[in-house]
Design goal:
Helix 3 runs parallel beside helix 7. Helix content is about 75%, strand content about 0%. The chain has about 280 residues and is mainly alpha-helical. The two termini are about 20 Å apart.
């Protein structure tokens, strides 16, 4: 029974990973090729067609499948461009955050006792500060440009990567191949790049995948509050915020971008969980 059940479970996880990854890649491709895919100019207004419902509701039209917002802009086109904006900011912010955290984690694990203590003290200080407070302070000082959002988001949650990498480095640096490299004259940079990081690839991929929804929601939250992406640029969070005053009579103005945002975060969670399960199975084997 055990031998028969294991392949079935693996197949199920593989199917979940494949379907989720394919759906996510499709959404990303739609966002990347937004100028080609979008049926309308996302900023074109038509007051005569404002607050039109989605096509499957009475009064809707397939000319605007997701309906229109309060000033007549096509919601499907704005969602497509919103994916491009929100996904781009979240991706670059996550890359910056991961690079910072991984670099500090390697420095802490390989740099000696004093360096380790200094980096971990800084990590503990950042862990005690509320994320929203750091974000708002950064935006208040630097402005609301897109590059500012990328930087301030990058300075949030790097502590998780630093702690993970440091812990792995402390366990890996005593391995024989690391000692052999050090004995042959390999410096800290070579050891980190060629011996430590390759062994951290699997857990880093999982934590990055599971962290992305939080970063995406962080960007959406800032835009929802009005301190993120500024109009007329389409952003999923900004679109949700713009429609909050029309939830009773025109729920789709906030509802459509909310569905898109939830779908993206759900797909990332499914991919992250599937990757973690598969890595755990491979580790047990």
């Amino acid at each position: 029974m055990t031998d028969t059940a294991a392949p079935q479970q693996r197949t199920l996880r593989f199917d979940t990973l494949t379907v989720s990854a394919a759906a996510l890649l499709f959404i990303i491709a739609v966002g990347v090729f937004a100028p080609v895919v979008a049926p309308h100019d996302p900023n074109f207004t038509n007051l005569l067609a404002r607050s039109k419902p989605p096509a499957w509701i009475d009064g809707g039209s397939w000319a605007h499948p997701f309906g229109t917002d309060n000033i007549g802009r096509d919601l499907l086109s704005r969602c497509i461009y919103g994916i491009r904006t929100s996904f781009g900011i979240a991706t670059l912010g996550l890359i910056f955050s991961a690079f910072l955290g991984i670099s500090l984690g390697l420095l802490s694990g390989l740099g000696g006792a004093w360096t380790d203590r200094a980096v971990m003290t800084m990590t503990d200080v950042f862990l005690t500060l509320p994320d929203l407070l750091l974000l708002l302070c950064g935006i208040a000082l630097l402005g609301t440009d897109i590059w500012v959002l990328i930087v301030v988001i990058g300075f949030i949650r790097w502590e998780a990567y630093a702690r993970l990498v440091r812990g792995q480095v402390l366990s890996l640096r005593a391995e024989g191949y690391v000692e052999a490299s050090r004995a042959l004259g390999g410096g800290p940079v070579r050891i980190a790049l060629f011996h430590i990081l390759p062994n951290l690839a699997s857990p880093l991929v999982v934590i990055l995948t599971l962290s992305f929804p939080g970063v995406l929601l962080m960007e959406a939250g800032l835009s929802f509050l009005g301190v993120g992406v500024q109009p007329p640029t389409a952003s999923l969070g900004r679109m949700i915020g713009d429609g909050r005053d029309y939830l009773i009579n025109a729920w789709w103005i906030s509802g459509m971008p909310s569905i898109v945002l939830v779908t993206i975060t759900l797909l990332f969670q499914l991919i992250g969980d599937s990757l973690r399960d598969r890595i755990d199975v491979l580790s047990d084997d």
